Amino acid sequence: MFASLLKQAVKDRAKGEVVLTSASGRQIPVLLSLSILRQGGTPSISMLVTDLSEQKQSEALRRAAKRLAEAQRIAQVGDWAWDPQADTVTWSDQMFEILGLNPAEPVPDYAGQLTLYNPESAQRLHEAVTQALQHGGGYELELRRTRPDGSQVDVLVRGLVEKDDQGRPNILHGSVQDITDRKRVMDALAQSEKKYRTYVDNSPVAVFITNEKGRYLDVNPVACNVLGYEREELLAMSIAEVDVTESEALLLTPFEQLKASGRFQGERCLLRKDGGYLEVLLDAVALEDGRYMAYCQEIRDIKKLQNERDSYMNLLQSTLKSIKSLIMVVDKDHRVILSNWYDHEWVPNEIRNTRPFCYKVMKNLENVCDKCHSVATFSDGIIRNFEDRNPINGSYKDITVVPIFNKQNNVEYVLENVCDITKYKLAQKELLSAKQAAEAANKSKSEFLANMSHEIRTPLNGILGMLQLLQTTPVNDEQNLYLTQAARSSRRLTRLLSDILDLSRVEAEMLHVTMEVFDFKDVMDAVLQLFTPVAHEKNISLECHINPGILAVLKGDGARLQQVLGNLVGNAIKFTDKGQIVIEANPLPPRDHEEYRVLFSVTDTGIGIPDDKLQTLFKPFSQVSQGYRRDYQGAGLGLSICKRLVYLMGGNIAVESEFGIGTTIYFCIAFGLADPFSEAISTDQPRSNLPETLSILLAEDEQINRLATKRMAEKLGHRVVAVKDGQEALDALMAGEFEIILMDVQMPLMDGAEATKRIRAGEAGKDKANIPIVALTAYTMAGDKEKFLDVGMDGYLAKPLEMEALLKVIEEITAKRQA
């Protein structure tokens, strides 16, 4: 190297590194700088020698430090040193990365070091450091640190005390290694080992693990039990000492198959510790690292399981055959793996002995149905029910899809329950058609009854009206008798109409009761007032006994109660020729705190009822006497309607009778409790505050009814203007002053409902928009009264009209307006 530099220096200056050997033999790296000096005589050489030893050492240290830092980064290890006297700590760069700290921040002191770790780890570290400083030596700990970003890091911390010349602790050196990944792997291995141990130890069959030479490496408790050995005994043995299936030379045949294919299955004969033999079915698989695992199950148990399975399958097949609907168990590929299609003719014969697709069975399709409910059930495990129509033959199927779960709680199969409901659907259509026809017929019947009622009541109103007017004129006793009997016949015909309409409401389930406050005594008095004159005509005593403990005011349908009592008392009078009729009312214990029950009875001393007739007593159109010879009149509807009304009012009805002696009919009704501060509306309105004469506008299109109603009102002392339709009523109201309007409903040109709406709208004058209007009509079907009140009418009078009813309504409405 020196010669080369010398040659170069002849031409120019030269510089290079060379190694010189000192007298002691030490190698010294130097930097030589050579140059030729040409001054005067002979040229000379100028040489500058620079010692590079320290520089070379520094570079070597830098390279070593770099390699160390790289090694620490790869190994995820950082080193540190702590001077306890000065409490100064130095870290390598890797320490910052492992602990998740910023390298720009200062290294924490000893106390700060402890705060870097979780509390339990910090305590252990402090105890180890204290022990090392007191007694010397080192320590090794696994600690846990929570980084600022929230992540957990497991570290292996090592420490070693360096002592000074006097043997006192001087410096504590140590390292920190990130073992998070290793801990995770170790935990996973531990979990895997735990699972493996759990599976093996809890396996219901014997499990053996061997090496490739047949030595037992592990066995489970079942293996020990079936062979009669302790675990330690088996682990000291090999297969050759247990398996006696074949000669020792052929003993390793299963291992040869395991090496070749990784699997062996066959029957083996094992020797028990007590000398007995055990025939087993062995199923072995190859594991890693030259190990093998074998499962053994006694052939006797297998045959038992097979017999149980065969018995179960026979039972299952018998059960499936007994089910009328088609049952199909379908896998995820839509294959039918089990079915009972033996008796289902619509399933094609050519697919019965195969494993066809369900869509081939159901619709003879080549691909999955457009909307497959089984796919949805496989996905979410929800039971589905739906109707499906085959577009080819028009048949209907009711299909239920039920999930079948495996041990992992995943849907492995679905069961499809298919019912052919074609006949049912056709019958349903026929039934719907019949229902619609019946509803149409029922509607026609209701319309007919409504029209019949209206058409009969209209002339009946004229007849009864004229009879009542005649009774107000001077007549002799004979004429009065005739008039009374004619009026009574008219009223009987009216009641018959009402009974027929009530019966139609019962059949249509449109007979309703209301819950309103009423005066109990008023209802009972009304019944007595109605029937006392009739009873006196037959020389019969009519009595009423009301328990004084019954509340005066109750909540219920007083009108329907009066109707029931009226029917029963009327029947009693009809079938009694001598003696007495007694009405009784007594309270009953309530079933809850919101009801008030009353027991009623109507007892007569009449003809009584034979035992064979009691069963039909409450049936419509049934009477004790039948045929052409009838001793008593009537349509046989009253008791049937009474029974229905009593049931609607929360009670029941019963009869007790002795033929030739008399009859008692009992019924109870559940009323509601009225507000103690409320009062029933009195039916007797004071008349002293009413004007003696009212100006009344009457709108009635039928001439006789118009005359009868007009004369009735005039007999009551009022002035009446009569018109023929709603338009004339509007005109008359605009032209004159009236206190009340009696408005017929069915009229030509403009009916009563339309006229009422216009009056309320102010077309006859704003000052007359609130004039009282009373509906006067032969429409008495359920809901008719409510319709008229809804259009703005204030009251309702049904035809045929009674003079007393007319007086009562006029007084009630007028008194209400004045209030």
UniProtKB/TrEMBL annotation:
<dbReference type="InterPro" id="IPR001789">
    <property type="entry name" value="Sig_transdc_resp-reg_receiver"/>
</dbReference>
<protein>
    <recommendedName>
        <fullName>histidine kinase</fullName>
        <ecNumber>2.7.13.3</ecNumber>
    </recommendedName>
</protein>
<dbReference type="InterPro" id="IPR013655">
    <property type="entry name" value="PAS_fold_3"/>
</dbReference>
<dbReference type="InterPro" id="IPR003661">
    <property type="entry name" value="HisK_dim/P_dom"/>
</dbReference>
<feature type="domain" description="Histidine kinase">
    <location>
        <begin position="451"/>
        <end position="673"/>
    </location>
</feature>
<dbReference type="InterPro" id="IPR013767">
    <property type="entry name" value="PAS_fold"/>
</dbReference>
<dbReference type="GO" id="GO:0016020">
    <property type="term" value="C:membrane"/>
</dbReference>
<keyword id="KW-0902">Two-component regulatory system</keyword>
<keyword id="KW-1133">Transmembrane helix</keyword>
<dbReference type="Pfam" id="PF02518">
    <property type="entry name" value="HATPase_c"/>
</dbReference>
<dbReference type="InterPro" id="IPR036890">
    <property type="entry name" value="HATPase_C_sf"/>
</dbReference>
<keyword id="KW-0067">ATP-binding</keyword>
<dbReference type="Pfam" id="PF08447">
    <property type="entry name" value="PAS_3"/>
</dbReference>
<keyword id="KW-0418">Kinase</keyword>
<keyword id="KW-0547">Nucleotide-binding</keyword>
<dbReference type="GO" id="GO:0000155">
    <property type="term" value="F:phosphorelay sensor kinase activity"/>
</dbReference>
<dbReference type="Pfam" id="PF00072">
    <property type="entry name" value="Response_reg"/>
</dbReference>
<feature type="domain" description="PAS">
    <location>
        <begin position="80"/>
        <end position="136"/>
    </location>
</feature>
<dbReference type="InterPro" id="IPR000014">
    <property type="entry name" value="PAS"/>
</dbReference>
<keyword id="KW-0812">Transmembrane</keyword>
<feature type="domain" description="PAS">
    <location>
        <begin position="192"/>
        <end position="235"/>
    </location>
</feature>
<keyword id="KW-0808">Transferase</keyword>
<dbReference type="InterPro" id="IPR036097">
    <property type="entry name" value="HisK_dim/P_sf"/>
</dbReference>
<keyword id="KW-0472">Membrane</keyword>
<dbReference type="Pfam" id="PF00512">
    <property type="entry name" value="HisKA"/>
</dbReference>
<dbReference type="InterPro" id="IPR005467">
    <property type="entry name" value="His_kinase_dom"/>
</dbReference>
<dbReference type="InterPro" id="IPR003594">
    <property type="entry name" value="HATPase_dom"/>
</dbReference>
<dbReference type="InterPro" id="IPR000700">
    <property type="entry name" value="PAS-assoc_C"/>
</dbReference>
<dbReference type="Pfam" id="PF00989">
    <property type="entry name" value="PAS"/>
</dbReference>
<dbReference type="GO" id="GO:0005524">
    <property type="term" value="F:ATP binding"/>
</dbReference>
<dbReference type="InterPro" id="IPR011006">
    <property type="entry name" value="CheY-like_superfamily"/>
</dbReference>
<feature type="modified residue" description="4-aspartylphosphate">
    <location>
        <position position="744"/>
    </location>
</feature>
<keyword id="KW-0597">Phosphoprotein</keyword>
<feature type="domain" description="Response regulatory">
    <location>
        <begin position="695"/>
        <end position="814"/>
    </location>
</feature>
<dbReference type="GO" id="GO:0006355">
    <property type="term" value="P:regulation of DNA-templated transcription"/>
</dbReference>
<dbReference type="InterPro" id="IPR001610">
    <property type="entry name" value="PAC"/>
</dbReference>
<dbReference type="InterPro" id="IPR004358">
    <property type="entry name" value="Sig_transdc_His_kin-like_C"/>
</dbReference>
<feature type="domain" description="PAC">
    <location>
        <begin position="139"/>
        <end position="191"/>
    </location>
</feature>
<dbReference type="InterPro" id="IPR035965">
    <property type="entry name" value="PAS-like_dom_sf"/>
</dbReference>
